[in-house]
Write a structure and sequence with these properties.
The chain has 202 residues and is mainly alpha-helical. The protein folds into 2 domains: 57 residues, Arc Repressor Mutant, subunit A, CATH 1.10.10.60; 125 residues, Tetracycline Repressor, domain 2. It has 11 helices and no strands.
C-alpha cells in the first residue's frame, strides 16, 4: 500500500521538460523574443499555458533559460571552444569565422545566432531582455579581446596592433554574418566573407 501511494503522490508533469525547452529554443531562435507569443510557445512545446508557467515561469524567465540551453549547443559553443582550444589566436579566429559561416546556415536549425538576432525590435517594456542579450554579446567580445591581448603579449601580434579594434571588427563581422544568413545568404557566400575578413589580420 505504501509503495503504491508513494508512486502516485504528486501530479506528474505530463511532458518531457527538456524536449519542451528545446522547442522553445528553436521558436525564439526563429522569431525572436518580442514576436513570439505564449500561445505560439505552448503550441510548439506541446503544453498548456498553466504547465508553461508552472514549469518555466513567465515568458522572460523561459527565454533566459532557452538562451542558456542554446549556449550548450554546437551553435552556442563554437566561439568559446575555438578561443580555448586553438594554439594560436589566428587559428582561433580563422576557425570561428569559418564555423560561423557553416553554423549560421545549417538547415537543421533556424539561421543565424539566437544571441544576436533574438533581441531585435524589443520594446521598452522588455528592455531587460535586450540588456540580458547585450551583456552576453559584450562578454563574448571581451573574451575575444582578451585572447587577442594575450596573443600580443606572447608576441603573436605586433606591439602596435590595435587589439580592441580587431576584436570589435571580428565581432561586427560575425554579427553581420548572422544577419546575412537570416536574409538568405548561403554558407558558401559567408565562407568567402570569412576568408576576406582574415586578410586584415596584422
Amino acid at each position: 500500500m505504501s509503495g503504491k501511494a508513494g508512486a502516485t503522490r504528486g501530479r506528474p508533469r505530463g511532458f518531457d521538460r527538456e524536449t519542451a525547452l528545446a522547442a522553445a529554443v528553436l521558436l525564439f531562435w526563429e522569431r525572436g523574443y518580442e514576436t513570439t507569443s505564449i500561445g505560439e510557445l505552448t503550441e510548439a512545446m506541446g503544453i498548456r499555458p498553466g504547465s508553461l508557467y508552472a514549469a518555466f515561469g513567465d515568458k522572460e524567465t523561459l527565454f533566459k533559460e532557452a538562451v542558456r540551453a542554446y549556449g550548450s549547443t554546437p551553435a552556442g559553443t563554437f566561439i568559446p571552444a575555438a578561443l580555448t582550444e586553438e594554439p594560436t589566436a589566428r587559428d582561433a579566429f580563422s576557425r570561428i569565422l569559418r564555423e560561423a559561416a557553416a553554423n549560421y546556415c545549417d538547415p537543421s536549425h533556424p539561421p543565424g545566432c539566437l544571441i544576436i538576432s533574438a533581441g531585435a525590435n524589443v520594446t521598452a517594456q522588455d528592455s531587460a531582455v535586450a540588456a540580458f542579450l547585450r551583456e552576453i554579446r559584450e562578454s563574448n567580445l571581451a573574451t575575444m579581446r582578451e585572447r587577442l591581448s594575450q596573443a600580443q603579449r606572447d608576441g603573436e601580434l605586433p606591439p602596435d596592433a590595435d587589439t580592441d579594434a580587431l576584436a570589435g571588427y571580428y565581432g561586427t563581422v560575425i554579427q553581420g554574418m548572422s544577419q546575412r544568413s537570416r536574409d538568405g545568404a548561403t554558407a558558401a557566400e559567408l565562407a568567402r566573407v570569412a576568408e576576406l575578413a582574415l586578410t586584415v589580420w596584422p
